[in-house]
Amino acid sequence: MTLPIPENSSDSLSTKKEKQICKLYVELMDFEPKIYRILYVPSDIKMSNLAYTLMSIFNAHGRHLYNIVVPVKEIKEKDLKLQGMAKEQITQAMRFMQDIEIESYVDRQMNAMDADFFRTELRMLPPEKLVARKVKVEQFIEKNYLTFYMNYDFGDG
């Protein structure tokens, strides 16, 4: 579904742009029966605003840290399987894939230590970490990353 954005009347040279609306299916994990919501958001919504919207519709207070994970490895692995790639090749390719973590708060020093641990101990690429208030949903839609996992309240209180 797309909605036209009205032209700015003060700018006679402006052209109509269409604002994309995303229909999201949001489900709480590990609940039976399923607890879910369907909501519509503009594609240019910042991930931080999306996170607080999700907290609101599930009656969370928004007092804890959260992160949103874009499971790039999971998405790419499914794509490679659909393309008929051999299991060994997929395993090799996955070594060079990394998930994207979008965080409510980023501690650069801790992230540097995490990255070092991933490289030296696990021999893997560390996840790419972004700040939620600086990225928008549309940035991931454009890359066909259509699945997100949100983690809220890491047991910090």
**Structural class by helix and strand composition:** alpha+beta
User: What is the average of the pLDDT values?
Assistant: 80
- Rg from alpha-carbon coordinates: 19 Å
Main beta sheet strand tally, sense and closure: 4 strands, mixed
Strand order of the largest sheet: 6-5-4-7
Query: Helicity level, as a percent range?
Result: 25-40%
Low-confidence stretches: 1-15
Q: Strand tally, please? A: 7
* Cα shape: globular
> What is the number of helical segments per DSSP (H or I, 4+ residues)?
5
Q: What fraction strand?
A: 25-35%
Distance between the termini: 40 Å
In sequence order, what are the helices and strands, one letter per element? EEEHEHHEHEHE
Compose a concise summary of this entry.
Helices cover 30% and strands 26% of the residues. The chain contains 5 helices and 7 strands. The strands form 2 sheets. The chain has a 4-stranded mixed β-sheet, with helices on one face.
